[in-house]
C-alpha cells in the first residue's frame, strides 16, 4: 500500500519495568536511528511530567541527544507544553538546537500541562500564566523567531531569523480553531483522544487561513500501531500498552509492564470499554492485516502525514514493528 504520505514517529522515552531511565534514552536513540534508515520523516518527543513510565519530561535535551546520534531524520517536540514555560526560553532552546542541527528541528506546541494539576502547579512556581494565555504566548514565541523582532528590547539569541517550523498540537475543536486562525500545521492526538478527530480535521481544512509560514493546511494524525509477524503476537504485545492505559484510568503511574497472555483478570469490563474508546485509533496486526485498517482510516480522515506511536516492551520487537509499519505505509 503506497499512501504517498509521509510517515513519522512519536516517542515518549518509555521507561520499562526492570529497566531505568538511561535504558529508555538509549532505546530512543536506537529507535531514532532505525526510523531514519526506514524512511520515517521525523521523530517527536512528548513532554509529560510525574509519570513513572515516561522519560521525556525534557524533550529539549533529548532532541539534542538524538540529533547527535542521527544525521537526516527531523527531530522535535510533540510537544512542548507552552504554559509550563517562558516563550523566550523555548525560543532560545530551540534556536540553539536549530543552530547546531540546521534544517532538522521542529517545534510542536501544546496548551495542556502534560500532567496532573498538582504537578502543573509545581512546574509553574512563580508564574501565573494559564492555558488562556496560550494564544498570546504563541504569538510571543513566533515573534522571537522573526527577524522583525530586531528592534525589540527583548530578543532571543540565537533563535532570531531561524526557520524552526512551529506545529500546533491538540485533541479538541478549540485547537483546530486556533491552528486554522494562525495558519499553522496541526497535529491531532488521536492516539489517546480520538473523539474529535474527524470534526477537528474538517474544521481545520475548511477554515484554514494561509500565513507567511504555510500556504495551505497541513494535518497530522497520530495513531498507535503495534505490528508483528502474526496477529496473535501483535495482540500479545499490545497488552503492555493496555496496562499503561489502565494505569492512567486508575490514576496510577508505573513503568511499562511486560505483556501478558490475557487482560481478563487485570481489568474489568468498564475499564476495558473505556480503554477501547480511548484507543480507537489503534492498529494492531501483521503487514497483511494492517493494510485494510489503514485504508479504512484514510477514507474517513484526510491526513497529510501519519504519525505513529509504537509502545512495545521488547526493543527488538518494537524495531520490527517499525519495519512492518514502514513496509505498509511506504
UniProtKB/TrEMBL annotation:
To bacterial alkanal monooxygenase alpha and beta chains. GO terms for molecular function: oxidoreductase activity, acting on paired donors, with incorporation or reduction of molecular oxygen. InterPro entries: Bact_Lucif_Oxidored, CmoO-like, Luciferase-like_dom, Luciferase-like_sf. It comes from the Bacteria. GO terms for cellular component: cytosol. PANTHER family: LUCIFERASE-LIKE MONOOXYGENASE. Pfam families: Bac_luciferase. This is Luciferase-like monooxygenase. Residues 26-244 form the Luciferase-like domain.
Amino acid at each position: 500500500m503506497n499512501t504517498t504520505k509521509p510517515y513519522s514517529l512519536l516517542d515518549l522515552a518509555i521507561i520499562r519495568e526492570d529497566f531505568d531511565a538511561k535504558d529508555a534514552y538509549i532505546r530512543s536513540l536506537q529507535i531514532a536511528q532505525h526510523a531514519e534508515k526506514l524512511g520515517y520523516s521525523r521523530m517527536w518527543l512528548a513532554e509529560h511530567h510525574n509519570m513513572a513510565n515516561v522519560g521525556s519530561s525534557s524533550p529539549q535535551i533529548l532532541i539534542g541527544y538524538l540529533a547527535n546520534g542521527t544525521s537526516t531524520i527531523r527531530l522535535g517536540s510533540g510537544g512542548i507544553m507552552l504554559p509550563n514555560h517562558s516563550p523566550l526560553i523555548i525560543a532560545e532552546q530551540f534556536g540553539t538546537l536549530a543552530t547546531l542541527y540546521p534544517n532538522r528541528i521542529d517545534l510542536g506546541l501544546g496548551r495542556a500541562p502534560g500532567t496532573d494539576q498538582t504537578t502543573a502547579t509545581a512546574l509553574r512556581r512563580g508564574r501565573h500564566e494559564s492555558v488562556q494565555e496560550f494564544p498570546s504566548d504563541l504569538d510571543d514565541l513566533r515573534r522571537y523567531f522573526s527577524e522583525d523582532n530586531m528592534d525589540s528590547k527583548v530578543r532571543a539569541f540565537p533563535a532570531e531569523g531561524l526557520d524552526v517550523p512551529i506545529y500546533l498540537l491538540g485533541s479538541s475543536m478549540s485547537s483546530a480553531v486556533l491552528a486554522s486562525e494562525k495558519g499553522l500545521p496541526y497535529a491531532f492526538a488521536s492516539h489517546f483522544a480520538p473523539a474529535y478527530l474527524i470534526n477537528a480535521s474538517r474544521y481545520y481544512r475548511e477554515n484554514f487561513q494561509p500565513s507567511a509560514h504555510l500556504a495551505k493546511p497541513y494535518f497530522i494524525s497520530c495513531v498507535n500501531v503495534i505490528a508483528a509477524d502474526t496477529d496473535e503476537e501483535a495482540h500479545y504485545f499490545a497488552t503492555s500498552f493496555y496496562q499503561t492505559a489502565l494505569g492512567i484510568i486508575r490514576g496510577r503511574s508505573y513503568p511499562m509492564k511486560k505483556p501478558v497472555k490475557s487482560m481478563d483478570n487485570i481489568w474489568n469490563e468498564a475499564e476495558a470499554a473505556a480503554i477501547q474508546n480511548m484507543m480507537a485509533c489503534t492498529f494492531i496486526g501483521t503487514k497483511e492485516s494492517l493494510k485494510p485498517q489503514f485504508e479504512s482510516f484514510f477514507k474517513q480522515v484526510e491526513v497529510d502525514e501519519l504519525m505513529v506511536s509504537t509502545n512495545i516492551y521488547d526493543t527488538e520487537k518494537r524495531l520490527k514493528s517499525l519495519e512492518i509499519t514502514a513496509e505498509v505505509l511506504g
